Amino acid sequence: MSATLEVRRLDRNFPFCLFSNDGLTLVGHHWHKLVEIIYVQKGVLKIGVNDELLHLEEGEFYIINSGDIHYFLSSPNSMRLVVQFDFTIFEDVQFLKKNNMELIELFNCIQKSSVFWNEEVKQKMITYLEELECEYIGKKEGYELAIRARLYDILLLVYRDLPHTENNKLNYPNRKASLLKLEKIFHFIEENYMNDITLNDVANYIGFTNSYFAKFFKKYTGSTFCHFLNQYRITKAQWYLFNEDLPITEIAYNVGFINVKTFNRLFKNEVGLSPTQYKKKTIFEKF
């Protein structure tokens, strides 16, 4: 099992896409040719890029370069704006050609996290992304031209204003092996979260000792296995509460909790509402 190549079907003459996802939208390991700009509009977003786990707070950005392997973990009560584009949308970048630089190289040597950007640069990026969103949603006459203009603004920002860093090459064989292991772990959890699984079960499945697995999992997810599994189950429970008219007890059992009191307590700690309160809230929002 390996990271999935995501192929998003964009217009060849206008390879651009913009959409929003909430924190309940889990996305497994994947990569694509597109550049992806993530803007956290609400809450805290947990995202893995290559072999690094990131916690992006509200108002922060991250630029994912073409070919980077990335994934999104459960991030309750968060919202993110995602902008994707292919380099071919830039029809002519003579100033880069003069310096014998490819776009992928340019995007690979910048500080991709906004925590390293100054406030003026952040505000420029916010403005550009808000205008992109407005144009893409409104689709007024000439919106494609307006979007191209803002993307050129972003390109100039990347070239001129974002701090650069030495492009230290990662240890790709080790990184790939770790990502393959992590993908297998996530697959096991997805297939078995409704059952009574333990750290020992997953460690045996992946071929690690318990102690090594615990350290490995914490390194790549920023969470203990127990906390991650409970959080994953609660995310699944939120889906049931929103989409299915089932008793709370049945939902708790469906997502792997054998003790309803424990489910209620952990759910409220994670979501801020009891399962019953959350269900009432989602019913109200539907109507």
Briefly say what this structure is.
With 287 residues, the protein is an alpha+beta fold.
Number of domains: 2
Weakly predicted, low-confidence segments = 168-173
Order of helices and strands: EEEEEEEEEHHHHHHHHHHH
CATH class bucket of the largest domain: Mainly Beta
The largest beta-sheet arranges its strands as 1-3-8-5-6
Report on the biggest sheet. Answer: 5 strands, mixed
Tell the overall outline. globular
Q: Report the radius of gyration as a whole number of Å.
A: 21 Å
End-to-end Cα distance: 41 Å
Q: Any idea of the CATH topology of the largest domain?
A: Jelly Rolls
Name of the CATH architecture of the largest domain:
Sandwich
State the secondary-structure class: alpha+beta
Helix content: 40-55%
- CATH homologous superfamily designation of the largest domain: Jelly Rolls
Strand content: 15-25%
Number of helices: 11
Q: Give the overall pLDDT as a whole number.
A: 85
Number of strands: 9
Organism: Gottfriedia luciferensis
InterPro entries: Cupin_2 (IPR013096), Homeodomain-like_sf (IPR009057), HTH_AraC (IPR018060), HTH_AraC-typ_CS (IPR018062), RmlC-like_jellyroll (IPR014710), RmlC_Cupin_sf (IPR011051), Tscrpt_reg_AraC-type_HTH (IPR020449)
Protein name: HTH araC/xylS-type domain-containing protein
Keywords: DNA-binding, Transcription, Transcription regulation
